[in-house]
Write a structure and sequence with these properties.
Length: 76
């Protein structure tokens, strides 16, 4: 028995379509599906990731000029 984890998005019609390659043609399978909504915050960052960073609370702090990026060169 293999466990396959898939993350997929349902369509506007509320249907979730799954296609799983099992590697055994013309074979009958018992399939068990557990569907639960993804509990992530919608960002790609792990929960608590930004808690690792500090902040500057000094109101007199100023960010120095960053300069400009060179223009991209078009390839012919």
């Amino acid at each position: 028995m293999d466990t396959v984890m898939i993350r997929s998005r349902s369509g506007a019609d509320s249907k979730l379509c799954l296609e799983v390659t099992v590697g055994q043609p013309d074979t009958e399978f018992d399939v068990e599906v557990v569907a639960r909504p993804n509990q992530s915050t919608g960002s790609e960052w792990p929960e608590g990731y930004f808690d690792l960073f500090g902040s500057i609370t000094d109101e007199t702090f100023e960010r120095p000029p960053q300069g400009t990026m060179p223009r991209a060169v078009e390839l012919e």
